[in-house]
Specification:
This protein has 252 residues and is α/β, with parallel strands linked by helices. The chain has a single domain, classed as Alpha-Beta Barrel (TIM Barrel), CATH 3.20.20. 48% of the residues lie in helices and 16% in strands. The protein contains eleven helices and eight strands. An eight-stranded parallel β-barrel has the order 1-2-3-4-5-6-7-8, surrounded by six helices. Strand 3, helix 4 and strand 4 form a beta-alpha-beta unit. Helix 2 runs parallel beside helix 3 and helix 6 runs parallel beside helix 8. The structure holds pyridoxine-5'-phosphate (PXP). The site of pyridoxine-5'-phosphate (PXP) has 18 residues, from strand 8 and helix 10.
Amino acid sequence: MALTNPDSPLRLGVNIDHVATLRNARGGADPDPVRAALLAQKAGADGITLHLREDRRHILDADLPAIMAAVNLPINLEIAATEEMQRIALVHRPHAVCLVPERREERTTEGGLDVVRDVARLTDFIAPLTETGARVSMFIAPDEAQVEASAKIGAQVIELHVGAYCEYSAEGNEEARDTELRRLFASAALAQELGLEVHAGHGLNFANVGPIAAIPEVVELNIGHFLIGEAVFVGLEAAIREMRRQMSLARM
Ligand code: PXP
């Protein structure tokens, strides 16, 4: 399936993990992440992103094939670099696999993957995934050494962790935010020079998405928590459509 929607120079991957988080709080079937994925598709999402965590706090194993069967969009599966997750990715063969760091006690993915420190292991880890045709992505901080290491291990994509930028923006710390933005711009430019496709995500909302959507090398944003929260007030379709509008405005 083509990754690029020709009408959309900047793709939006909608992360529906938190629909599953809500469902899991009661242990029943509602709200159904498959229904959320279908609505996201209807609202113009370019892809669906899912994080199958080791502790299964978001989606559960059965959600992955159910969502893959239901939607006609590329699936981006976020996983930790463990044997169990590699096996699952090789069985289901999602369009893209994004490697993320994972600690059980963290509330969300705090910080990027340390590719520099794990070059040999990650090179071996991603080889079979790449062989099955998956686009393999590294979720990294905007750090040039991490970008270079991602290219070295044979990843095709990096996803820049924009969490620090989002936090500084929320705090109104303009100096720190702008320093972080410069790092994001520099990392994106270096990644493209090295032949890597550039994505970004984590913590994006209507107030902070503009400057990230304006980074010219970025071709995909993955956004979850804010959209699912906003859906409580305006509905998922309206939240996604507004995000797309803000992304397009920033891109013009
Ligand atoms: N990209 C990656 C790699 C993630 O792990 C996550 C979730 O932590 C996101 C994007 C989406 O972040 P958020 O839910 O804050 O929008």
